[in-house]
Amino acid sequence: MRLEAVGRRYGARGPWVLRGVDLDVPGGQVLRVEGANGSGKSTVLRILAGIDRPTTGRVSGRPRTAYVPERFPPALPFDAHGYLVHLGRVHGLGGRTAARRAERWLECFGIAGYARTPLAQLSKGTCQKVAVAQALVAEPELLVLDEAWTGLDEDARAVLDDAVRARSAAGGTVVFVDHDPRRLAADTTAAHRVQDARLVPVPPDAAGGPRVVIEATGGGVPPAGLAYEPAAPGTLQVTVPAAESDAVLRRLLAAAPPWHIRSVRPAQPPTEPA
Amino acid sequence: MTATLHYRTALLLRSFRWLPPLLLHLAVMAIGLAAGPRPLLDSLGWSAAALLPAAAWLVRVSVTAEPPAARACVAAATGPGRAHTAGVLAALLCSVVLGAVSTAVVVAVADPHTTDHLKAVPVVPAAAAGLLAALVTALLGTAVGALTNPPVLLRPGWAVPVTALTAVLVLVAAGSPANAAVTGLVTGSRTGVVPFPPAPLLLAAFAACGATWLAATLSGRRG
Q1: Architecture in CATH of A1-63+143-151+167-202
Q2: Lower CB density within 10 Å: C or N end of chain A?
Q3: How far apart are alpha carbons B6 and B1 in whole angstroms?
Q4: Which residues belong to any copy of the ABC transporter domain (chain A) (predicted)?
Q5: Domain count, chain B
Q6: Which residue segment(s) compose the domain that B9 sits in?
Q7: What is the DSSP pairing of strand A190-195 with strand A198-202?
């Protein structure tokens, strides 16, 4: 997926919220979007999710998308299960698949007991779980999370973190905004900051920190977006910041066919000039 | 699109927000039909005319039925244009059902004679002509509703009075397909000839498609 020279403003004479944004979002990426309050983070997410259309520029190659808002008001005349089945079908699933997945996610979030409760009677947190489940039911290729963790309890946050890793391992893309700077820190493959209506790449924290070398063998294609050095035939070697090693290992193991990890070892620090 | 339409229709029906437009339609029908059995074609004309403002209001009710967060979830899945189109279509479906029921009620209670009570009016062709006119006004009411509500007119302070005014204008303006359809029935009631003009239906369908397309194109861009 790709944004080219994307600009957005609200109203014909409103100020530009975004201007000249170019962004490539390859599959398998977990992308963090940062920025001050009101800087336009949500607008970036809404354009990525296809909810807002850019005023200028173009967006191409958007895959099947699901979106989770920060607050999900319960003003809908459905029960939790009924709403999830409706949304699953809107996402293109058959009725049975939608019902099965709806039940599974309600169970994962520990709210299967509220499946037949009208949304209007659910607590704020439970409603937010339904909003997250709505996106996960779709098993989307692009998952956009606008502070989706807000209002969730610890267990539900962990479920969502795991779901993000599963989406990314399956080759899907996840774009998220969250107040907590440690959110998915080990899984994030890139970060961008919205500043003065522009999107600026944030260098990974771990760039100067320790790095590890991962050596793997296998016959398949290396996961997209992985900067690897081919060693012997059928082997590859990747040097990554230590903080990202778990995410890279997970992607190698989850590839189809999976890669076999031969070794993980600390990289030699670059030699100081004499 | 079918799934989205299904969702929007369920949303509209379960929200009970269709009740005020339905009451408006019933009130106008009651005013027209309360004074005992009236000539059939005349009553069908009145019933079709009463449907137009109700259809426009139903579009407003349907396209504003979701909180913005829920709308965003659906828009991400289908694109904002399709999500909006499904909302307008759900309203149109309800209007068509309402028009069909009203037509059936009028056929059941009205007097199947001309206005001067001298000539009998054939009931089945008259019912078909009534349905045709109801379809014309449902389509035009939908077009009016699509053009006078979000995402075209965002503020309720503008949208509501403009919807009401436009609905009345489309009914009374000479040359409007709704006016032609209703006038055809009223004239038919005097002459005893059941009218089946194809032009108003075509024009109304064209207007509804164009208005919905415009609103769908604007959704995701405005607001």
Answers
A1: 3-Layer(aba) Sandwich (3.40)
A2: C
A3: 8
A4: 1-227
A5: 1
A6: 2-218
A7: antiparallel
